Structure formats: structure tokens, C-alpha cells
Amino acid sequence: MAVKSRIERKRPKEARSKTDTGKLKLTFVAFVFALIWVSLWGRAAYVQLYLGPKLSDAAGKQNLATEFELGERGRVYASNNAILATSVESKSVYASPVEIQNPAQTAQALAQILGAPKKNLQKDLASSKGFVWIKRQIDDHEAQELQKINLPGIHLTSEFRRMYPNRHLAGQVLGFVDVDGKGLEGVEGLFDERMAGGRAKFVVQRDASGRRLYLDAQGREMNIKGQDVRLTIDTVVQDAAEHALADAVNKFNGRSGMAIVVRVETGDILALAHYPYFNANSPQDSKAAARRNRAALDIFEPGSTMKPFVFAAAIDQKVIDANKVFDCENGKWSLRGKIIRDTHPYRWLSANRVLRYSSNIGTAKIGMALGAQPYYTTLRKLGFGERPGLGLPSESPGMLRQPKEWTEFDLAAISFGQGIGVTGLQMAKAYLCLANMGMTKPLRLIADPPLEGLPEPERVFSAKTAESVLSMMREVVEEDGTGKVARIPGVTMAGKTGTAQKVGGSGKGYGEGIVASFVGLVPAEKPEFIFMVTVDEPTPVTYGGIVAAPAVRDIAIKTLSYYGRLPEGKGAPDANATEHSMTARATHSPTADGSGATVPNLVGLSVRRALEVLGKRGVVPSLKGGGMEITNQKPAPGEPWPEGGVAAHGEGFVLWLGHGEKEKTQ
Question: What pTM does this model have?
């Protein structure tokens, strides 16, 4: 220790001073670094713990944006791939009030662009809501102006306005949607959940090209587009049915009408037409009555179109055969104090003639011979008294009382179609069973998505019975029966007319109103198509064979031509052919090409060939007269094609039918 002390005492004073200064510098540097380190940690803690939520929100606003998006509603397609209902994109404006710093200033800017009252806008923008509609379906100019000024809290979103490209085509079947795109009636209402587009808030990240990627909570891309629906309706057949139905209703001053076309092989409804029309593009301009799907909802007494079913039941039960004779009482028969009348006085008629001439008295006697319970059982198997099962909203089950409630007169009346309430779809389903050789088959209106839980086919009549009844119905058209106006030369048709009184307004007894109808099955031997037309309260002519049968003939000609089933053969002489039409036929040479810019000459062509030419241009003409050859046309050859095609329903395009030179010389 003494030595060490001595050494220290020997150190120079200057050396000790330098050492102390170095320590001070090191201490100072360490203190500065410690201060900086503490400051950085403090700042980090302040940023993370205190400013963290605010900064995170600000960063999110810079890189991510919350947007409101509505997906496109699914489309409705026809069986021939035509679009029946679609959606058109438009921009709408909404606000997130919680994001708006200055409601008064924002309201002023919006009022100038959108033309909305500033006071109302400011009230909405100052609310505490997270979402407020500002204006829906704005025009492109307004959308561009809003994008330029980019107001905080004001957002544009895409909405879709529903559009029906074919205007009133199948309007009552399709239904319509409200301003929010919610389906209210018809197919739109039935499949609203399926077709509705997604509606949600999304965190949106844009790439360099401005494209947006939507992700759900699990990080998968979302599909917010609604699903499509496909119907069995064919727009060509539907157009032909609507056109012919409108002509029948207007010609005979009817209140309304409906027409149904069914393809027997599949049970597909190719046309479900109503008149007056309903244009779903402007539902606010229509009355509720015009929007009704009358074929599914309206109950009516069918009259004589019910007769084939009592004949089929009686033949199947071996109560009658085609040759059994009935006393038709010279057209007037008193039963239990009530009178049953025929349109014409007949005395003794065989069963096939009872159906041919549509004798109520003869049919009543057949029904009474059959009995109430067997007839009721047959009607229930055919689908009367229950909903048709198409899946449409509010399908009516009709009205069919229990047989224990029937009096003897009730049985007689129900046999010829009075005292029972049916719908158009129920009648079509029953005739489908007859056309399907006695086996039930479900009607189809919706092709996709397919309906589930359909009933199994059930035999109602034997095939031999169905053939026998179809043969009787063929006489209605092809002999001197009540449906001879529906005759199509070269085509066999089984048919039945109906002329039924309507129940009076008090619900007791019958009024003056008549429902005129006709059902045709083509070809008669093994039907491929069912055609039905009903006109409510025609005047002054009320007979189904005069009012509805020509419309069925018109629809059948166009449908058969469309499906390539119309023969090329010439028709029978046309009593309505005018001298002008004959002159027109003689002075023009027919042409078979419809591809030019002007209307070709169709005079002299067969109906089938003429409809094929017009079909290439989407034109469904109005047919007038009889026979199977074109004798005159409007527009004349060389005139411009009418605009609109199928959507215009052939308005103004008329073909007059007559006979050819071959028949003229025979």
C-alpha cells in the first residue's frame, strides 16, 4: 500500500485532469443517449397507447374505404333464352353522417348538384345515423360532379333498376318490384330471395387500375349478384297467344281474357297470356285487376269444357259407350222443379253426338247414371278442388263441394260445368291428363330452379278411354260440331267449346254475364299441344265456338309452324276471301326470302312458309280469314320491315288466308 501511494503521488496533475474530463464526456454522452432513448420510448408509447386508435383510423381512411354496394338482381329467362326481366345499373347517393365534419357546408354543395332542398339535406347529414339515403338513381352528370368534389362522408353506390325488355309480354306472370328492388307479385315475388342481389358494407381496396376487390369476413371473394330464374314460357308462343287473345277480347267487347298453351310431352306451359295487358315497367300506371294472374287466381264456372271428363269417367266405369243413345228432351228438361236447356232442340242422340253438339240434357243424364261419388273421385284425381302446384303465389284451389252435399240437380249441373268453380290452370292440368292418355302429369312453369316434391303420376282413365273421348272431341271440330270454326286443314284437332253463365252479383242464381271458352288438343290422336282460350263477358255474341275457337285456331297455326308441325298442304276454300285479296294474289309472285331490307311478297305461300319467313325477323303477324295460303298481306311487298319485332307483337302486320288455285279448280 505504501508503494502504491507513492506511485500515485508521483502521477502528474495534468494526467489526472484529463481522466476526469473523459469521464464527464462519457457520462454526458450516455445521458444524452439515455434521454433520447427514453424520449423515443415515450414517444412510441404515446403514439401506440394514446394516439394509436386515431392514427389507425386515419391510416385506414387513406388506404381502405368503406363502401355500400347493392348486387344486381337475377334475371328471368324464357325457355328460348330470351330475357324476360333484367336490371340496369344506375348510381345512387348516400351519406355516412358520422364521417361529415361540416353538415351545413356539405348540404350546400349537395343542394347545388342534386337540386334537393338544403334544409332537408342538412337535417339528414347532422343526424347520428350511420347511413342515410340522399338521392337514388341519379343521372350521369350528377354522379360525375359528385366524384369531382369528393365530399367527405358522401358516397356513390350502384343500384339496379328493373327492366322488362318485352314490355307487357307475360306481365302478370312476371310480377314487378318496388323501388328497393323487392319482388312484390308473380315470379318476382315468388323468387325474391333467390334473385335479390346482396346488400352490404364492404372494406374496399383499390388496385392501381382502380379495380375493387370485395372480401367477406373469411377473406373470400363475395358474389353479391342474385341468381337467375328460367321459365318454361316461350316468347314466340306467348306473343302469339297474347296477340290472338287481345283480338278476341276486343272483337267481342269482352272484359278480359286468358290463354294457355301446354306442351303435352313435358307439361311445360309455353304461354300463359292475359288481357288487358300489364306492363311491369310502370306498375304505378296500372290497376290491381290488370296485374292479376287470372289463370291462377280467378274462379269461374267452366260450362261445357267440363263435359269430356264426365264422359271419360262414365266410359271408364262402363256406364256408357260412344253409341249409347240418350233422350235430349227436345232441348228442355225439368229436373226437381228446375229447367235444364239446350241451345238447340235435340231428341235422341248417341253419346258421341251428345258431346259433339254439346247437349246439357244428354250430359246431365250421363252424369246421373255415373253417380256423385265416382264423378267426385274422378274430379279430385284430375286436380279439381286443390291448387295446381306450380308454386305461384296465391294459387286458388277452386270450389268443389263434397258429394254428400250434392242434390240430384247439383250432380246434373256439375256434369255440364255449372255449380263447380275452377281456375284456368286447373282446366289445363285436367286436359293434360286426358292428352297424356289418362295419366296425370304436373304442369311446369318454372324450369329452373326445379320444383321439389312433385306428386307421382296417377292413372285416372285407361288409355282406351282417353282415346275414345279424344275421338269424340275430334268430331266437335272436324264434323258439324260446335267447334268447327277452329278447324285447321291438314291438322287433326280434338276440341270442346264452353259457354257458361256467370253467377249473379248477389251470389245466388245466374246473371247475364257469359264466360266463352274453347280447348283444342293437337293432333287429335296423340296430342302434342293443348290450347285454351277464355273470354269473360263477350257481347253481343257469347258462344265459345265463335268467340274463343278462332283465337285457338290462330295460336295453334303459329305454334305448329314454329315447331315445324304445320303441314305444307293447301287449305279449304275461304268464304271470307275478298275480290281484292284474290287480285293481289294473282298479280304478285311469291318470294321466300325474308333477309332483305324490305318486306318480301308472301302472297301465294303456304301459312307455314310465310310464318317461317316472318319468324326470322321476329314478327308474329295477325291472321285473318280461313284456308292455308296467303292471299294478301300488310305491309305490302317492298315496304320497310315494321320496327320492334316480337316486342311490337306484329302490330300492323296482317296476313289474309284463303285457298289456292288447285282447290279453286276442284
Answer: 0.76
